[in-house]
Amino acid sequence: MSIGLALIVLSGCLSSGPNENSINTMVAQIVSEAETQTAAAFTITPIVTSTATLTSTSTQTPTLTLSPTPIFTFTPAIPQISVSVPTNCRVGPGAAYRRVGALLVGESAQVYGRDPTGRYWFIQNLDSPGNFCWLWGEYATVTGNFIALPVFTPPPTPTFTPTPLPDIKVSYAGKDTCVGWWIEVEIKNKSDVTFRSIALTVKDTVTNITISTSADDFTDLDGCLTVNTNNKMNPGTTHIVSAPAFAYDPTGHKLTATVTACSEKGLNGICVSEQITFTP
Asked: What's this model's pTM, rounded to 2 decimal places?
């Protein structure tokens, strides 16, 4: 309908005598407008016929995978050592060295080195703060980066100097009397130890009577009037020592005398004993 109207208008225009170019231009415009209006008025909507196909679709719920929370283990900068059995700590790696402390069960010490064999650890001495010692690793557990520990050269093995053993020689020296009867024994110091105390016991095996004494000196009762006393027995010297008195004369009885001599007063220090049997 729009085209017809346009043609009518066009006829009117032609009657007034426009030129050909003007007509062509106007026709082109009208056709263009008509096509635009027709396209706008008539919209072909395609009808799509589809055949539904049922497809089983499995919807999967994603499974959340939890990564385990990392456990951070604290590694001390200085390795630590503990023991399952109380262990001595020494000035060197071995039993030949002097003991200066111990690491007990439940205690923990810092480790600063090891010996070339890997059997001993150089640790802080808990019994002497500020000092160090060597610990046998048989019952030890070390935690931390002990691989990086330095290897220390241990001190020289100490030269063993045996402690001089005390030695005495005891013999029967006689019998004396004043008030009662007592036995006298001769004691010779055969060692390099100085003795400062003594114990003397005499047993009569016939009457089963035992008498004894101990003192921090060496006394010889010579009858009723003379008393000889020495406060020590030096190496190589010999002393006579009197036993307590029997209330009877033990002559002819089998007696046993036991002498103990010690390097310190009060029967302390290094001690040695000897027993003799005799008949006065």
From this structure: 0.45
